[in-house]
Fold:
Amino acid sequence: MPYGPPLLLASLNPIAVAAGADIPDAVTIDDATVSRSDLLGAATSVAERISRADRVAILAEPTLRTVIAVVGCLIAGVTVIPVPPDSGTAEREHILRDSGAQAWLGVAPEGTDLPVVPVRLHARSWHTYAEPDPSAIAFILYTSGTTGPPKGVMLSRGAIAAGLDALADAWAWTWKDTLVHGLPLFHVHGLILGLLGPLRVGSPVIHTGKPTPEAYAAAAGSLYFGVPTVWSRIVEKPELAKELSKARLLVSGSAPLPVPVFEKLTELTGHAPIERYGMSETMITLSTRADGERRPGWVGTPVQGVETRLRDEADNPVPHDGESIGALQVRGPMLFAGYLNRPDTGDWTDDGWFRTGDVAVIDAENFHRIVGRESIDLIKSGGFRIGAGEIETALLGHPAVAEVAVVGLPDDDLGQRIVAFIVARDGSSDALATELTAYVGEQLSAHKRPREIRFVDTLPRNAMGKVQKKLLV
Ligand code: MLC
Ligand code: AMP
Structure:
């Protein structure tokens, strides 16, 4: 019973849903399961309420209400701005101001100035809407750059459809799968792949709330998504990891999967994990395949429709010889439509390739290995992308902080952990470190809090006065 495009959420095709008594349930989340019919009815009721809006903000808690709100917007053609539920005041205000969100849909944070449109779980409507144009922007996802506040990545419906179809092809993902994950619903991984993917392909999805080893083992799915931190926590609990041997495919992405974790997972589950590489800006462009080689430390070949190339510092081609390192550039139908309000960020080449900011190696079989990031100021911690500049700006807002430099240091669990080197104005103390950590959480969001604060007398600077972060890492 395959579903097909042209609808972005093909498995919610109203005719198929009305006809299909044997269609599997759509989404299990927050201990509630919703059928495709109930999801379509509730989301269409949301669509009726908001169809005159252009852009709405959704506090992206992992709940049924969030799912219904997102689907309602996609039915009505209203752009969604997912807001991290734990975002602090500065980050949330920036997202709302920059995006021009007109209302909160569903739950709203206390003290908001915007109107709040409720999402009623039991309301139903069977009105039908025309499918919006593929160029319409479905989501504006806020993601960190090296400096400044997060930028709004505009993803069109057409890009999302192309990106999901490429993954269905690479992973042989069909409606017969059951996807399991517990990732946040405000980034590409958890939201676009992990929620829209199943709603396009037609496979049920079980969201576990948090991506714990216990919840993954208990969920009994066929397809699992996780960031490397999730997989490394799973292999530390061999009895739980073994439960995943019943699955078809384990997929890792958002950050480098350490080779020992790849090997341990293979040993415990009998499945060599699929690794795939992507960005908020590009969705997933590289992946190993369900029917192909899986090589520890490598992220596979370009997915359907994607081309890649390597460039050196003088913009000359770098050979694809499995050893030479170059800046990775990509192009393909799943790329974003630009950063909102920032037309000239210089991330595109004149001939239309996107500069990923990652450095990579490509071999003769077109297999890719991600070597690292060009900038020391982009940190990946637990799969979250975090700009050092954003945390530094937040910390400089605290009266006790004279100077600060934030870096990512290697961490077995998180890949990198955020460490802030601080020159304090009036002496340092453990209490001040705790206060500063909490202060970042109040301004930004929980995962942007430094894990460690190191008080120093001075920061290493070059002759120009610029902090030399390489000396700190
Ligand atoms: C965390 N804690 C802190 C702290 N940081 N306490 C004090 N100071 C700090 N700095 C607390 C937490 O609040 C929590 O407390 C406890 O420590 C454990 O925190 P943790 O180690 O962060 O674990 P957890 O909260 O479980 O988070 C790990 C994780 C999370 C893997 C679940 O990092 C995660 O969801 N990552 C997914 C990121 C993601 O989806 N990225 C995709 C981007 S899209 P308590 O009390 O709450 O237990 C993308 C494109 C692509 O990259 O390619 O996919
Ligand atoms: P984000 O914008 O949060 O999507 O982060 C994108 C960044 O995550 C990329 O530019 C890479 O640096 C990193 N990344 C994503 N997937 C992988 C992977 N499989 N291996 C290594 N790095 C990855």
